[in-house]
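Hello,

Our lab assistant flagged a job as stuck in the queue for most of the afternoon. It eventually completed. Since we weren't sure the result was trustworthy after the delay, we are filing this so someone can double-check. Below is the sequence as submitted and the structure that was eventually returned. Let us know if re-running is recommended.
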Amino acid sequence: MEPRSEDTTADLIIVGSGAAGLSAAVRARALGLDVLVVEKSAQLGGTSAMSGGAIWIPNNSLMREAGAADSEETAMEYLDACVGDAGPAASHERKQAYVRQGPRTVEFLREQGLDFVYSDGYPDYYPELPGGSVRGRCFMARIFDRHRLGEWDDWLHNDSAFKMQILTKNAREIMDIPYVMTTAAGRHAAIAVAGRTMMSMARRQRNVSLGRALVAQLLYAAKRLGVRVRRDSPLRELVVENGRVVGVRIGADETVRARHGVLLAAGGFSRNAEMRRKYQPQPSSTEWTSVRVHDTGDAITAGMEVGAATALMDEATWSPTTILPDGTPSAPLWERVAPFSIIVDVQGERYCNEATSYMEIGQKMYERKAIPSWIVFDARHRNRYPFGTAMPRLTPREWLSSGYLKKSDTIPGLAEACGIDPGGLERSVARFNAMADAGVDKDFERGASEVDRAGGDRAHRPNPSLGALRKAPFYAIELYPGDAGTCGGLLTDEHARVLTEDGAPIEGLYAAGATSASVMGRVYPGGGSSLGPALVFGFIAADHVAAKARESGGVMRREGLGRAG
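-- returned structure --
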């Protein structure tokens, strides 16, 4: 398609259409900037649309409305305790900008018509630390009918991290559903989700939830405000004149110029095997990631080519991952938090709290050189809880015939089937069983944190996350350090400006989302610690570009930029 004349220049060019890019687009357009979003693929939303959709932003208005106490000071106390000193990407200034601008971002998006639901009872991942929240700081986008997008409906990315296209309201509901066989909360959640989904189908609605609901609502706001979008337009390089980024080359060889700035928000490099080999711990594989195939580091590379510094390139939002018989990665969540399961290395030894943050477990896998590891569980686990898409007691035959799922009537037999040291696994199971009976994990404190207990089976006593592995048959599945995105990227300051190695901003260049090095450093403070910063630093970048444009007399307030009706 020949480029339209109006597409050759914009006030702000945004590369990428995930949460960071769309948040920036909506904010910048509402401030009067002419905005053009360029997207590599034919569909919009990037990895944000594939995600679970959780958003972690402290001191947000949804918390206040629910009576959940929080403050800027408390949130900073938690981030300081949790993230600590992780280098310039997680500087005090950037963390403070995130905490201060987060509530403004949420309020602005709500004013633009985005509808969110607080995930009350979904704790921070380290709630016992100073400033941690047991009720949680997480929220999600409300279920959204894609019909409202009109002709943009077909542009929304259709992939999802969840194979079953169910309509889930919030993260607390996601935590309860696995316990449909054992708890009233689980049954209530399952009935609510099933009823919601069937009602949507009966009404012929095209409802989406989770990450796609967030992207759909952002797209709806962007469309209403008049944000322009170019699909099938991969970034080739940045255009620099007199030390300032003034545009991008996209597609075959088309130049689009930016009057006031370029924001890189095109994801990380999870699908770039060469970059993974160069920067990340080994072994690693593009086959282990749950991120979109287009996540190949194009924007990071483009930034580096014009002198941008990088940080945290060896880090990722790791998640212990199984590889299904068809090659699809699947990341166990409740499966490792629920009772009657442990994770072991090839020696049969436990080496972590199985219920802790997925990112931390991935780090432990690399520290231990426990690749692959195994999640081991017994018949009670298989009979009571889902495993991935397999409902309790209904194990796909292909899982066993393909060797994906190992099964044995004895622990030594299971170890031999897996190539695990039988004596080591027997000793680990025996020790774990004794601790589970007492309800106290003396080795790794599983179940000691409120987040472990909140994600466990509340019908199980004395500890919702600890259950002995005694009932045959026993099962095991291999685990690899998969990821939900890379954490390393272009180094940015508190204004989302891209910096050089000497700390100077590159004029006209901004980055947010997974294209920028994470403000969370090497820790995942709570569910949604990727989408939260993506939204906030996209908002911050738009504010900074608009302020610069006003200084130069370049912003014209346009008609029709009010709140959605």
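-- support follow-up --
The delay was a queue issue, not a problem with the job. The result is valid. The chain has two domains: 16-233+487-551, 318-483. Residues 338 and 456 are 5 Å apart (CA to CA).
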